[in-house]
Every structure is written in C-alpha cells, then in structure tokens.
Specification:
alpha/beta; globular; Rossmann fold; 377 residues; 15 strands
Length: 377
C-alpha cells in the first residue's frame, strides 16, 4: 500500500502523522511511504531522515492526497484537504466530527473512508489512541492555567501552590477520566487545593485511592458543579462522551458569578467544549475574557509540545496503521472490532451513531457497510 503523510496545516500544529521510525516499520512490511517535505522539520524529523529509511519526499500536499491509498495525519482535515480526498481513499487521523458538521459533510462528499483515532477502543472499553493526547492535554491544562492566573494574562494573580503562610489556589477539575487524572496529578504536585467532580462513583473511589488526601473527590451534580466552580481559581473542563458533543456543564450564569480573574481551561473544546462560554482558540491567540474570567480553549493543546505528543501518538497508532496497510481496510476492520469502532464515515455514509445523532444525519452501522462490501466483492 502507498501511505501518504502530509504536513499539518492547522495553526501552530507541528505534530506529524508518521515519525521516521513508524515509516521505517511500514516500509519493512513492504509498503511505500510518501512524506510531504517539511512535515516533521519543526520537531527534528528532517527530509533526509525519512529518505534514509526509504521514504519518498514530495513537495506538495496535493501530490500526497492524489497518489496515496491511505492518508495518515494528526488533526482533522481542513476544508481544502477534504476537497483533495477521493472515493475509497482511507483517512486515519483525529476527526472529532460531532461538533463539526462542515467537516462531516466534506468527508461525506469526498466518498473517503474516515477512521477516527478518538473512537478506536480496546478490550476494556478505553480509547487507546486518544489516551496519550489526553495525558498530554491534562498535564498541559495545569501549566496553561497557572500561566493564565498571572496578572499580566488577566488572572487574579494567584500562585497555584501558594507559599508558607498563604493559601494555595483552588483547582476544580470536571471529569475524572484520563485528562482529569493527569490534570489532578500536576495540580496536586504543585500543592494546589484540588477537587475532582465525576458522575461515576467507582471512578471517584479509584481516584480517592490513587491520590489519597492530596485530592478531594465529589459526585458531580448541577449543584456541586456550581458550588465548586464559584469558589475556584482555576477550572479544568475534562469531560468526554466518546465521539459525541460534550455536555455544557458550566453555564453562562455560573461564569458570570465566578471570581474576578478566575481561569477556565476547556480541554473538551475539540468536542465542542463543556462550558457554555467556550469557543475554540489557537496557540497564536489562546485566551479571551468573559465576565472577568479568562478562558483558554485551544483546540490542539498537545501541539504546543509537538515532539512529545508525536512520539506518544505514533507509539499507539502504528499497530493499527500496519493492520490497515497489511490487510486492507475492509479486512482490518472485520478482524478487529476495536479498530472498527473507529470507523466514522464509509464512502458517503455516517457509521458512528453519536455523530449521526448529534448532526441529525442518517446512520448506517459499520457492520452493515462492511457486509455490503463483501456482497459486492
């Protein structure tokens, strides 16, 4: 199979879909790899490094999309990239379709086969291709939040950990999954007051056992969210409903009552955000203020630490990329129900239920489209 990896074009996005190591593994299995010049340059992966392991270097994204049988990326295709996709071409990347009807329609119109990293599952029901980026984003959320609390950034001027004789900042984390746990790890390590809210009592027990007295766990209701958000210095939105738009758990009214100079970091912004006042921002212009509260809503947070993020992502995506290349897309999906869970679009049909529901589109199951293909062949 000819696998293409274009340079990412989202603002300040320096991650790359294939490292030289991943490309080498694909080539070792008999596949061809095509890399757009400059795709990994910013994080130390030069064209020479790719050429040294046998990859082909091309100058334009147009050539990558025109020739490759499978496109491996990091971020969702931008509108001009959707237009370059063709019927039957495999797209393997993060998609986050539920809150993005424009992208969904672009993929439908292209006729491509779009497999989303963020909905691939494992035997425990976890999301293994989302987890490493959630770890990065969770840890970054505290780093970003601490910076935004500084006076110059519009914050209230609190140091997360305080100093002897001065109380530390209060950090409230909504959602106790991978993002929330990693945010709590960083915040508690900086000696903040940390509260995690979640609706899964078993998960709260696990977090309580893991952190002990360093973190307070609270069952999430509208009342408890409001109580803790209004007293918070930093709020981290770490809510995830796999493949679906995030629920708006912090309302405009709550934000209007928050302390002056408080900070909200919405890690759920890729899925639409979990604060009513959230809107996607970029690394170039990461924050804005609503009712004297600073909002940080960068939609590709892990791109800020692109080298770490790229290595972590490739570690988990490579086995699936190899399966798709070695077996072909239909057989790979039939053989692995966890990879099949990643199928969002198949040749004009929406195959992920949450996306179809959120956008009021017709839904066809992955099993149904794969069965149709078998009958045709």
């Amino acid at each position: 199979m000819l696998i293409g990896c274009p340079k990412e074009i989202k603002t300040r996005e320096y991650r790359v879909g294939l490292t030289p190591g991943s490309a080498r593994e694909l080539i070792r299995h008999g596949h061809q790899v095509m890399i757009q010049r400059g795709a990994g340059e910013e994080i130390g992966f030069s064209a020479d490094m790719y050429q040294a392991i046998g990859a082909e270097i091309v100058d334009t994204a147009e050539e990558v999309f025109a020739r490759a049988e499978m496109i491996v990326k990091v971020k969702e295709p931008q509108p001009n990239e959707c237009k370059m996709l063709r019927p039957g071409q495999i797209l393997f990347t993060y998609l986050h379709l539920a809150p993005d009807p424009v992208q969904t329609q672009g993929l439908i119109d292209s006729g491509c086969i779009a497999i989303a990293y963020e909905t691939v599952t494992d035997s425990k029901g976890h999301l293994p291709l989302l987890a490493p980026m959630s770890e990065v984003a969770g840890r970054l959320s505290i780093q970003a939040g601490a910076h935004c609390l500084e006076m110059k950034q519009g914050g209230c001027g609190k140091l997360l950990g305080g100093v002897p004789g001065v109380m530390p900042a209060k950090v409230v984390i909504i959602g106790g999954g991978v993002v929330g746990m990693n945010a709590a790890r960083m915040a508690s390590g900086m000696e903040s007051q940390v509260v995690i809210l979640d609706r899964n009592h078993k998960r709260l027990q696990e977090l309580d056992e893991h952190f002990g007295s360093k973190v307070f766990t609270v069952f999430s209701t509208t009342e408890t969210i409001e109580e803790h958000v209004l007293s918070a210095d930093l709020v981290i939105g770490a809510v995830l409903v796999p493949g679906a738009a995030s629920p708006k758990l912090v309302t405009k009214e709550m934000v209007s009552k928050m302390k002056r100079g408080s900070v909200l970091v919405d890690v759920a912004i890729d899925q639409g955000g979990c604060f009513e006042t959230s809107k996607a921002t970029t690394h170039d212009d990461p924050t804005y203020v609503v009712n004297q509260s600073v909002h940080y809503c960068v939609a590709n947070m892990p791109g800020a630490v692109a080298q770490t993020s790229t290595d972590a992502l490739n570690n988990v995506t490579l086995p699936f990329t190899l399966a798709l290349a070695n077996k072909g897309v239909r057989q790979a999906l039939l053989d692995d129900p966890h990879l099949k869970a990643g199928l969002n679009i198949w040749e004009g049909k929406v195959t992920y239920d949450a996306v179809a529901t959120d956008q009021n589109l017709p839904y066809v199951s992955a099993d149904e489209v794969l069965k149709e293909k078998v009958l045709v062949s």
